[in-house]
Amino acid sequence: IPPHIAADITLASPPEPREEQAFKPYFTVASLHEAERTVQACGGAVCGPVWPGPGFQARNVCDPEGNILHLRELAP
After folding, report:
1. Which end of the chain is less enclosed by CB atoms within 10 A, N or C?
2. pLDDT tens profile 19-47
3. CA separation (Å) from 2 to 10, 50, 66?
4. How far apart are the first and last CA of the chain?
């Protein structure tokens, strides 16, 4: 990263969610609970509550850089 750009980058721990990103990828996981544990073990964070959807439950998480990802667990 060029020094003039790097000077404006701040890394926080835990990461601050970046709400203004262009898109939010989602991933279907076998278990939200296990996926949340993996996210946290890798330096990310869980963001907000679990909510129901049609045939799934979902939650947002963010990676160590603050990028928000959407996790979905399909209903049995």
Report:
1. C
2. 777 788 999 999 999 999 999 999 899 98
3. 15, 39, 21
4. 45
